[in-house]
UniProtKB/TrEMBL annotation:
Pfam families tied to this protein: PseudoU_synth_2 (PF00849)
InterPro entries: PsdUridine_synth_cat_dom_sf, PsdUridine_synth_RluA-like_CS, PsdUridine_synth_RsuA/RluA, RluA_PseudoU_synthase
Superkingdom as given in the UniProt entry: Bacteria
Family: Belongs to the pseudouridine synthase RluA family.
UniProt-listed SUPFAM superfamilies: Pseudouridine synthase (SSF55120)
Protein name as catalogued: RluA family pseudouridine synthase
Amino acid sequence: MSAIIDTFIAPPCFDEITFLFQDAHLLVINKPGGLLSLSGKNPQNLDSVHHRLVSLFPGCTLVHRLDFGTSGLMVVARNKAINAALCQQFSQRSVSKTYQALLCGHLSDDEGVIDAAIAKDPALFPRMTICAIRGKPARSRYRVTERGYYQGSEGDALPVTRVELTPETGRTHQLRIHCQQRGHPILGCDLYGGLLMPGAQQAERLMLHASGLTFVHPVSGEVMQLSAASPF
């Protein structure tokens, strides 16, 4: 099999990371859309959440990632022991995450569950694919909060549905590919059909934002509930 080559070069991101919580053990940040979580192998992809934070907090490590185009909440460990404790919470699915998204078109139902296994698709890197045979189980819940129209940069009004998404598993690109599977891709999603609706090219970003995060502080035992309002 031929080697996978990543040719993506991230455009400059001038938006700042904002801090919602910090102590001696961990940070909770609000990542801007258009910023890599980790620096890429290509030196042109040096700028990232980790690159920016490690200069301020030496030894910090990411517990989880958000896609380049996704904005919102991330928890960052300030040492290896805290990273291990938080990673255990993620692997045990005791961390609760919610997202806000704008989906292309108007959904007919108000809520539902998408249950579709996800696998890597080496032939179409970096895309994932729905595959019941090779895929890992993946489950997402959605709840409609509003149906309306997105005003594009050229004045076109695009029909969209605002939803709250709750992933019950944490697969790569899970929400993006599950929304495509449901027939309503996330507006602005270049990998899974979010630019195909007439006028969708006017979307200035991927309309996906990590808006809520709940976990247990590994040292204090406090239940941490954090939120960040959607920027779109």
